[in-house]
Design goal:
The chain has about 325 residues and is α+β, with helices and mostly antiparallel strands. The protein is built from nine helices and six strands; from the N terminus they run βββαβαββααααααα. The protein folds into two domains: about 150 residues, Glutaredoxin; about 110 residues, Up-down Bundle (Glutathione S-transferase Yfyf (Class Pi), Chain A, domain 2), CATH 1.20.1050. The protein is about 35% helix and about 5% strand. Helix 7 crosses helix 9. The relative contact order is 0.14. The structure holds glutathione. InterPro entries: Glutathione-S-Trfase_C_sf, Glutathione_S-Trfase, Glutathione_S-Trfase_N, GST_Omega-like_C, GST_Omega/GSH, Thioredoxin-like_sf.
């Protein structure tokens, strides 16, 4: 994993403190709104994603839920994050950058800010008119997609309804800290203490979510919200990657009846299965983190029956 310093890319491992993995704040945090610097316009914005990345995956799902495929284009990086970081080397499922013609994501960050310092992450929401990054924080990009294009023809549906916001925020906070980011904290831990501190709350949260989903179809009740989708992108990777590669192996998602049903139900929402690429996902993690898997060996399993019908009837649009 490299880093940018003053507009120059360095293919170095950043120093970590105390053996614990820390995820830095993202830098570009603008919104899309009528009358603002970035007004909603069809064809103006472009998403840069990796199909492997759970944070980028959220944004691809919201693009589908809101049927924005015709309004917002997508470039897909190569699954392997090596010395150049995220890049567009030819490969199955890679969609090159036809907007700016960059070969690697660090070039895009330099176009947005020639003096950029920080991590070069996906997803990125790019503005073709101002030629800059609107936002590179997935939690904010999904809210932009959720409502920012409603006035110009996005599909109906609100996955962040006002009445449920306090509950959504509370669920998100726990799921982010202990699960979405918790799997990385467990996997990238450099001490037993750091691993223990991550993996214990991770499984407490899975138990808590399982109990919740045994009494209600979605995390915040009867309505599917962004909290469900933010959980989904971690659970869909869990048994194939986090269980083995990140040593989150007390249980698998398939061992939790309600969580597994929830995962399959969301997977089966029209258009969502096409956003899930287990080839990119497994090849990325097992291939890119050579400190965890020095020979890059790709494990044989598991076989997941994601097409077995889920019991939660997806409401589209929700509500
Ligand atoms: N807070 C960011 C995190 C995104 C993120 O960390 N993406 C990972 C891929 S899964 C990445 O690009 N990592 C590259 C790096 O940190 O150098 C978001 O949610 O958008």
């Amino acid at each position: 994993m490299g880093v940018m310093r003053d507009g120059t890319w360095h293919a170095v491992e950043p120093p970590s403190t105390g053996g614990a993995f820390e995820r830095p704040e993202t830098r570009f945090r603008e919104v899309i709104a009528p009358g603002g610097r970035f007004p909603p316009e069809a064809g103006r914005y472009h998403l840069y994603v990796s199909l492997a990345c759970p944070w980028a995956h959220r944004t691809l799902i919201f693009r589908v839920l809101k049927r924005l495929q015709g309004m917002i284009g997508v470039s897909v990086t190569h699954w392997l994050m090596a010395d150049a970081g995220w890049n567009f080397a030819p490969g199955e499922g890679v969609v090159p950058d036809t907007v700016n013609g960059v070969q690697a994501m660090h070039e895009l960050y330099r176009l947005a800010d020639p003096r950029y310092s920080g991590r070069v992450t996906v997803p990125v929401l790019w503005d073709r008119v101002r030629r800059t990054i609107v936002n590179n924080e997935s939690a904010e990009i999904i809210r932009i997609l959720n409502s920012g294009f409603d006035g110009i023809g996005a599909a109906p549906g609100d996955w962040y309804p006002a009445a449920l916001r306090p509950e959504i925020e509370a669920v998100n906070a726990r799921v982010y800290a202990t699960l979405n980011n918790g799997v990385y904290r467990a996997g990238f831990a450099r001490s037993q203490a750091a691993y223990d501190a991550a993996v214990q709350p991770l499984f407490e949260t899975l138990d808590w979510l399982e109990a919740r989903l045994q009494t209600q179809p979605y995390l915040c009740g009867t309505r599917c919200t962004e909290a469900d989708w933010r959980l989904f992108t971690t659970l869909i990777r869990f048994d194939s990657v986090y269980h083995t590669h990140f040593k989150c192996n007390r249980r698998r998602v398939v061992d939790y009846p309600a969580l597994w049903d929830h995962t399959r139900s969301l997977y089966q929402v029209p258009g969502v299965a096409e956003t899930v690429d287990l080839g990119h996902i497994t090849r990325h993690y097992y291939g890119s983190h050579r400190q965890l898997n020095p020979f890059g060996i790709l494990p044989i399993g598991p076989v997941l029956d994601l097409d077995r019908p889920g019991g939660r009837v997806p409401s589209l649009p929700p509500g």
